[in-house]
Amino acid sequence: MTMTSTRPTPVAPVAPSRGALRPLGLDEVQIVGGFWGERQVVNAQATIAHIGDRLESEGWLPNFDRAAAGTLPEGRRGREFADSEIYKYLEAMAWEIGRSDDAALERRFREVVARVGAAQEADGYLNTNFGRPGQQPRWSDLEWGHELYCLGHLFQAAVARVRTRPDADDGLVGIARRAADLVCREFGEGAREAICGHAEVEVGLAELGRALGEPRYLAQARLFVDRHGHGLLHDIEWGRSYFQDDVPVRDAEVLRGHAVRANYLSAGAADVAVESDDAELLDALARQWRTTVARRTYLTGGQGSHHQDEAFGADWELPPDRAYSETCAGVGSIMFSWRMLLHSADVRYADLIERTLFNVIATSPSDDGRAFYYANTLHQRVPGTPVDPDSTSPRAGSALRAPWFEVSCCPPNVARTLASLGAYLATADADGIQLHQYAPSRVATTLDDGREIALRVETDYPAAGLVRVVVEDSPDEAWTLSLRVPAWAEGASIEVAGAQSQPVEPGVARVHRAFRRGDVVELRLPLAPRLTEPDARIDAVRGCVAVERGPEVFALESVDLEALGAADVSTVVAVGEPAERDGAVVLPVRALAIESDDWPYDAHADAARGEIAEVRVVPYRAWARRGPSTMRVWIPRG
Amino acid sequence: MTMTSTRPTPVAPVAPSRGALRPLGLDEVQIVGGFWGERQVVNAQATIAHIGDRLESEGWLPNFDRAAAGTLPEGRRGREFADSEIYKYLEAMAWEIGRSDDAALERRFREVVARVGAAQEADGYLNTNFGRPGQQPRWSDLEWGHELYCLGHLFQAAVARVRTRPDADDGLVGIARRAADLVCREFGEGAREAICGHAEVEVGLAELGRALGEPRYLAQARLFVDRHGHGLLHDIEWGRSYFQDDVPVRDAEVLRGHAVRANYLSAGAADVAVESDDAELLDALARQWRTTVARRTYLTGGQGSHHQDEAFGADWELPPDRAYSETCAGVGSIMFSWRMLLHSADVRYADLIERTLFNVIATSPSDDGRAFYYANTLHQRVPGTPVDPDSTSPRAGSALRAPWFEVSCCPPNVARTLASLGAYLATADADGIQLHQYAPSRVATTLDDGREIALRVETDYPAAGLVRVVVEDSPDEAWTLSLRVPAWAEGASIEVAGAQSQPVEPGVARVHRAFRRGDVVELRLPLAPRLTEPDARIDAVRGCVAVERGPEVFALESVDLEALGAADVSTVVAVGEPAERDGAVVLPVRALAIESDDWPYDAHADAARGEIAEVRVVPYRAWARRGPSTMRVWIPRG
């Protein structure tokens, strides 16, 4: 395992030492407004503080104070993995400080780090739930204890800090280093041959190793990855596939089991495969990604078909009404896909990231940034009841966004993702810059050969399909600007520096040119709403269509059915193509007039039908923002 | 609350003091062979002994020995509700002894009763999991402790015993009486105002009250029923609907929450409503039954759409692949329906009982009676792996029948149902006899006015549609023989004593006649296989058809796809009507040729199709009896 690059690592969550594409960090890419810019503002101004308040009031952060005061286990609050939420909160703050340099946030960050650090034991061990008199011994419940999982999140927080504030003296990096050293001692070669029931330490250790130039951490991450699939964890009701301990990573055909665990593990496996140049493992991960996307992923990009075990189902088992599609699985899927994109430059990975960002990540938080979806159903059959903003909800029990959950992994996961989102927009290679996600932004970097490039991206995407790239600085020599053309963008075109517009195919549009300052490249993505049909094998949505527009999946909500005189979405069928009317997307539908309420298996095929009416459909992420409603993404074709 | 009948109570699980129909007991109805007779033999010769062996080897029955020896809680085995399985086992043995008078079984029964009785405390309390030093206090966990639930099953066992062997000196009735008296003291008016998190004590107390002529038990059952829906139990992740503590029984519109709990509670509520002549409550139960059948019941009669909470879903939420359809919910549904049938004489209740018997109860046990389905999926996507006959399975984790479960409610529930099945075949009223379920059998009773009637039923049903009723004894005066004509039996006909055949409509065919010995009534039920379409609101099976034949639902199994050269059931579509060929039911199908394995939301509607071939479909209950396979009940229409 060798570090081949001598460049400073980017201010980004992932910095492989090799790969087809080089990530650009928050110092090189800034989102300056638009769809994601607005969400970054809400994240900074409301969500991060909301999380901090809840971590205090729920007692999860005070657990660290009690640990330092020696008053645990009495009064410990929260689930066994509650520590991890503090680490994700730290990670979100670190990225946000790096992005906006907020002094108050910096003070809060240091305060929390100090409280965390005070709970660390002399040998580096850090967990408020294990190891003290009256608690279970350390590492005694690897299936469910989440000790290594929590540390993985600590490591990612430390990575965020060292990359955004490499010279800070707050101590977080030292805390992480001491804990990582302990993990290597306890779980290294010849020591305890074990893994954690929830993957995360792999990806955390790998990146900490990269960030600190510490190959031991990468080696330990590799050990953990390689140990999966050998039955080191006890069997459970749902099988060892739940924690991906059923089949070795390099032998698996598809993601399975708990969808967050599966994606976190895959992300960590990608990291160790890249660092050890393990082509076989990378091929296995690419194969698993492809099959998972083809057979086990919702139209929204969401993953996870089971409520019970928060897990992937079998191939083609994608029920819209019992979709779990956990927000955190969306975060994990982006983590996995991003690493594969950097490795391969295959824009299919960026396509899925975009789909997941607009339809899972953007769906979760409320407009005010203080309530969240944990699970993201594609079909809501019963309107929710408003959620008390001071309450704590079961994790997937609400049809409306909830302020906090007994298992509250999702809010800080959204927060850290939004705070670092700039790092997922663009990459560089030896020959130029690649734009993967479109947002009003500035992109500036120095290529490996020293050439400096600066771009400004202007767009109202996804409201409008025009992406305008203005060259602000360019070397005299030709270089290549690559623009992702999403898979759905049939009919896209590109116009370079005022020349005639040229059609471009989905994939990558490459402009190789000796750019001059002020040159403009305009990519036009067609945004007419379109009907989408599912593969015939996805039984749960047979005979249905969905509406999409650009990267956005749309949904039919009961509040938009007034034109039809229909009360809910369960008896409406689509009878035509969607269209745009005054900026809204509409779909012609009819209400089925079904009178029968008897044994329901007697062919009601002759049900009379109502008048055709055009009703509004809204972006899926917008659903339930106008109050309780019923909703469906997949609409029966009439 | 008054007992209005002076007749001896029938040898049957349910003996209301009033109602439209009077149940006939095992002394009045005997199944003498055929479909159910064979299953009763396997139940008697294998299943009951298998259950007894497992209750010993799992340590659940020895828990009572440990309780008597004062060695609890150390070494207690099984879940908190394990006691209940011993009581259902006792109930199954009691009915079987009543049916077949097996001397060895009688010895075993007495042995088990003695061991149970030795664990009863002086004040009547009986539970191996609570109340001792080192255990939780009695009644301290009403949400999950199942103490009253267990006692409800004890009471049903005692009912079975007192009705089959009213003069036995084994002591079970005394054990139950002491426990019931304790329950009345602890939970009566003015005492602890509480309910159990798992309904069952209601139906158990009500019937024990009937069996022993003890109105206090009926009054206590009524209290428990009336207390539901007032939030006496703590809220939980899935809501109080899980234990039907969200809405009072008389106010509810539909069954909801845990499907077994919901049906057991409804059965108990029907009992107390009948005994207190509570027309409002009976109307509410009838309404809930109708809506549940119309909107929340599988084609098989199975109930319960969620794995996670073993619960009903929302209206129309009936996924075939994640169907839970717990075997015990089928038993509970029969308990509820049977009580409503006795009350109302509405044969729709008997229709559902028949459907549930043939497609849930008969599906669960293996041919050898030593393995069972706990959950009954309608779509198996991945073939199961053979289950070790000495293993203990998670409750719903297997695609193949399993010998025992960590939660093993279903095997003894099937056993007690099969052993008492004769009691569900026929009823009487002032004017005659009603036949509800068709099996080779003898039916003999004395009407209220003293007239004696005896019948012999000859049939190969459901293999053949001819039901031949031979009058073996009849008074001279006219009386009415009523024969249920199932809802699916369009085109049925009846022939009375050799007269010309007459068409009869689904519902009830009534023959009022001065029968003579030797008179024969022949009911012909049309058994041509038929295609069934679902209500348009059942999203999960849109565009699909199922094959039915008589009361049997059919399924397509992968092992029958050889003719098609297709490996599994996921890409097969139905392209015609089912037919019978050489005694088998066949369906014309085609295999879809789908090559794509990429993003699955790009309209694969043009997929080429294979040749049409007739493939065999088998009764759903027969699935996975030829080894591991994939299976589906609902087949896409091509």
TrEMBL record, chains A, B:
| Kinase listed as a keyword | no
Q: Tell me which residues make up the Non-reducing end beta-L-arabinofuranosidase-like GH127 C-terminal domain.
A: 529-636
A GO molecular function assigned to this protein is: hydrolase activity
What region holds the Non-reducing end beta-L-arabinofuranosidase-like GH127 catalytic domain?
A: 29-422
Keywords assigned: Hydrolase
Q: Does the keyword Cell membrane apply?
A: no
User: Where's the Non-reducing end beta-L-arabinofuranosidase-like GH127 middle domain?
Assistant: 433-527
Q: What is this protein called?
A: Glycoside hydrolase family 127 protein
Q: Which organism is it from?
A: Microbacterium fluvii
